[in-house]
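Exercise 7. Given the components listed, write out the predicted structure of the assembled complex. Treat all entries as one system.
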Amino acid sequence: MSPGRIAPVVAALSVQMTLHLAAQGAAPAALPGTARAAAPYDITGYWVSEVTEKWRYRMLVPDKNDYQQVPLNPEGRKLASAWDPARDQASGEACKSYGAAALLQVPGRLHITWQDDSTLRLDTDSGTQTRLFRFALPQGQGAPGESRGSGPALATATPSWQGQSAAMWGGGEPRDRRDGQGGPTQDSTGRLVVTQAQRMEPDYLKVVTTRMRPGYLQKNGVPYSADALLEEYFDTFSDPYTRNTWLVVTTVVTDPRYLIEPLIMHAHFKKLPDASGWDPTPCRADEPR
Amino acid sequence: MRAALLSIVLLVLASGPAGAQVDLAGEWSPRVYNTHVDIGDYTGIPLNEAGRLRAEAWHPDQVDLPENLCRPHPIDHGLRVSVSQLRITPEVDSDTRRAVGIRLHVAWQEPEQVIYVDGRPHPSVNAPHKWSGFSTGRWERNTLVYTTTHLKEAYLTRTGVPKSSQATVTTRVHRYGNLLTFVFNINDPAYLTRPYIRASSWVLDPNQVIPPFPCEITPDGTIVPAGKVPSFLPGRNDVLSEFATEYGIPLEAALGGEETLYPEYIKKMKTMKVAPRTTTEHYRRAQ
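Answer.
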């Protein structure tokens, strides 16, 4: 094939690539080796809740003691039955139902951005909250002894409504050898050897949050404690019917103090083209959002 | 130059869908919650007018008709409501012994769903419809994505919100360690104004035993008088508003619709009429 015939092909590919990059947004390129550069998909942008599940628990403030979908233990039930929204509002505790464990259940809009190449920032208009998802810094970066997302620094952080969140791209486990794509092998000592090529491609965001101030899983005072562990899995996909882009978050709350077993919740968000409809509100103890 | 072109072609091919990535096989214990258990609770469902009319005609005694006593849930609903212990096994072609997909087995009424990932096409539109439909899937990285067609006419909730035989369901299956999540995207042009997304999760439980599910159909007339099909005529459903009244929800909001799914609707509800509440302890019935 002559260069003259190849040039249009290369040009077309180049145009396609440019259009593709433009569609991803005009943010500056991420540094190689960073969490941002490794992102399997673009989670940034504006998103709006689509409340198709637990509607009456989310679009309204449920009645006191209505916690039939939460595996509360007796201590948790006792606390839930003492819920007093007026007291929370008056004592400056109105944000208890906007803590990390419940924030994505509150109907509203999200704005997700890269604060830096290793930190995703999630802002909500409901309750005007900010969560930071910190990825581990690439080896050799960061101050000596600095720990992001895990380790001693996290363990000593002051508890807050949004806690401390460690993020990672999940799904990069070793391949299953049975699928014929080349899984891990064993060395001469029998030790499993897993190269990067033998790992699957990460395809979701996992966020683990601790150090949260005690808060509410529902607006009606269903409690979680300072011991709670929050695990979240973020996935995006394009809807084959409408071509909308969706964000689905599966949330697991483990709280040995108030829950009999981990509570699993889901929240769905539709991607928006811009900030239209963004409606910042303060935390309110007696309102759904 | 040919080598360069070949490289480009290989690069493009390499970015295509991969084969099986994640082992989904095993016993999975449900962590699902029964919702929409009240008549007149269509909350969060993007129902259209036809869907709402059809739902309002449903009578709870219909479940006691002989033809309904042992009828399985439609598979997407059966995976979502109790009792939904789930077993996933590889599906192997009996002749070639090749893996062609995965098989789901659900506890309630023991429906089975095979999800083919071997590239076979869906059958003709005239092929029979089944409770589990016909499903084909593909792997998107570590996520199994499958589409189910040929579903029988059934329902979205156990309280009569309908789903037509035109509905297709696209499902995404994620395995997050020992957690399994199904995200259902239901498209029903007959009864929904837009696709309806909902999700359910399971936890790996290798020791789970799914018992047999024997079911006996009682003779016609045993529970419901023979020949009678209980239903409400349009506008005659005298229990339709009970859910809204007991939870303090505007009736219009309780009956669903696309507008009700979004945060803006909270403000709108404040301007709507709410019937005086008769109780604030309705939830205790199901707790």
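Discussion: Confidence is low (pLDDT under 50) at residues 9-18 of chain B. Residues 121 and 136 of chain B are 8 Å apart (CA to CA).
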